[in-house]
Design a protein that fits this description.
Blueprint (H helix, E strand, L loop, with lengths): L1 H21 L16 H24 L3 E3 L5 E3 L10 H9 L6 H5 L2 H16 L8 H11 L2 H9 L4 H18 L5 H13 L11 H11 L1 H7 L1 H7 L26
Antiparallel strand pairs: 1-2
């Protein structure tokens, strides 16, 4: 009885935590082809805040409002903000006053607030569970003690220890897993199937190319925007020390394409 209880309680907590993390919302799913689910919103579902910031930056790149700068930075391009751009693109445009590595730009308060606003909209639609994560992790903390308790109660070679270890594995997966609900995970998967042809888009079809980046992420950036991705350092870590631009402020400037 003691063995069953020591194994059953962690699994019960694990199931409750899983239900909280994956619980679908009550509101209908936004139309994936309409205004509610823009490329930036789709990118949040695919890869979180960093993916949304990257998509906003690519949106500006495709309109000529930013360009790759010197030694893996981005810098202002056109003097005006494009019409009908996303909030993430708008925040990025106004935050970029000097050449910056894309990761440093993503971490600026204005950009982070814009991305946070998009995530909040998706949470209200039942597609992500950002606010429930804290409660879920509180439930998971006792689960991590399942294996040690199983070892104490039944010995290190008993099935109870195995059950405890499996519960710990599930707890780790829920702790570090994506914040999407089940419905939030199905939606980008369906969009990728419906828009597989977007991976062949180029700068002559900027809206489709932006959708490709939002849905497919790194593979689309490397295949469809190779020059901008490489020269801007979009997929690299920022340097540890501030970079001296030295001579030739315009050296290495690239457009979006390649």
């Amino acid at each position: 009885m003691v063995h069953a209880l020591s194994a059953g309680v962690p699994w019960l907590l694990l199931l409750i935590a899983a239900a909280m993390r994956l619980q679908p919302g009550r509101r209908p799913v936004p139309d994936p082809l309409g205004r509610p689910l823009s490329p930036v919103r789709a990118s949040v579902l695919r890869g979180g805040g960093r993916a949304a910031a990257q998509t906003g930056l690519v949106e500006l790149c495709l309109t000529g409002s930013v360009e790759a700068g010197w030694r893996r930075t981005v810098e202002p391009g056109g003097p005006r903000l494009p019409r009908h751009c996303s909030e993430a693109a708008r925040a990025t445009f106004h935050a970029l006053h000097r050449p910056l590595h894309p990761r440093r730009l993503e971490d600026m308060d204005r950009v982070r607030r814009a991305v946070h606003g998009v995530s909040a909209e998706l949470e209200r639609a039942g597609l992500v569970s950002r606010r429930r994560v804290r409660g879920v992790r509180g439930l998971l903390l006792p689960v991590f003690a399942a294996a040690p308790l199983g070892a104490v109660a039944g010995g290190q070679t008993t099935p109870w220890l195995v059950l405890g270890l499996l519960a710990d594995v599930g707890a780790v997966a829920l702790w570090f897993g994506p914040r999407r609900t089940l419905r939030g995970g199905r939606l980008p998967a369906r969009l990728r199937r419906d828009h597989a042809g977007a991976r062949r888009a180029d700068e002559r079809r900027p809206e489709t190319l932006l959708l490709s980046v939002a849905l497919f992420g790194t593979p689309a950036l490397r295949a469809q925007l190779p020059r901008f991705t490489e020269e801007s350092g979009l997929l690299t870590r920022p340097p540890r020390e501030p970079m001296d631009r030295g001579g030739g402020a315009g050296a290495g400037v690239a457009s979006c394409g390649g």
